[in-house]
Structures are given as C-alpha cells and as structure tokens.
Specification:
By secondary structure, this protein is mostly beta strands. It has strands at residues 8-20, 30-41, 54-69, 73-86, 92-105, 116-131, 134-146, 157-169. It has a single domain (8-169), classed as Porin, CATH 2.40.160.20. It has an eight-stranded antiparallel barrel.
Length: 170
Amino acid sequence: MAFAKTRLTRGSRLALVSGVRAFGGTVAHDLALASGSFGWVFTDVVAEDKWWRGNWEWLNEVFAGGQFNPREHYFVGWTTGLRYNFATGSRWVPFIDGGVGLSGTDIDSPDLDGIFQFNVQVGVGTHYFLRDDTAVTLRYQWLHFSDGGTTAVNHGVNTEMFEAGLTWFF
C-alpha cells in the first residue's frame, strides 16, 4: 500500500525493553513502555521506479513507562523525527525511522544524574494492513537517554525494544 500525501497517522504501542550496556552505560536498564504517536505523510511516493520507493512521514511520539530492573524508576518523553515507509504494493509496509526528543526520569547513578534528559531513537519495523485504514505495527528500536553532558554523571541509558501496536490512517 502506498500512502497518499497529507495522510495522517495515529498509533499506540506497548513494549518490553531490554537494557544494554553500551556507549558508556554501566548497567543494563530493563524497561516497560507505552507510547502514542501522531504522524503526517508529507510527500507523494518518491523514487517510483526504484526498489526503495516510498513516502516520508513526520512522526511525533509521546511515551511513558517504568524501569523494573535493576531498581524501579519512571520515565516520560516526547520524540519528533522522520519515518520512511517503503511502498511495496502489498499489505506489508516496512519502514525505517529515527528521532530525537526530551525526557524526564528519576533513573539515577551510576548512569544518569538529574531529571532532564534527551532521547535518541532509531528503529526498523513494518505495518501489516488489516484494512485500508488500520494496521498492526511491529518495530525494533534502539532508545538512548542522556543529558548531553550537562551533569557530572552522564554514561547514558541504552535499550533495545520490540514494540507491538496498532496504527490508524486517516
């Protein structure tokens, strides 16, 4: 399925998140997360005669959840970014996406210090369309929290997640 220019999307997803000790992080932070998104497909199909033909979407996402390992903590956030939806002509529409945003959390030492954090997200996934306006969405995503060096402790929290949810197109 190809998305028409100016089509809007709304989605909701749940994820269990596995922490990873990477990029300076010293502890694996396991999280549970819920998110909602709102998107706007702002291009017609590009590269129509190429295997990578598809549409660009501006995506905004709010999320919240909790760390359950190694200790219980909360986090909330907002991310804005871009998603590229591959126009396959079938019910399966794979995509790649990435974004940056702001977060708040009480996850603390040894990896973070302070409530205010930035987040960076990069992912790949697919929509499977049940109807023209409804899809099951599956996504693998890397999520990173960091304060950008504004405090003395800034090792970062790094996670990889598998998300499942629904997306509506209107």
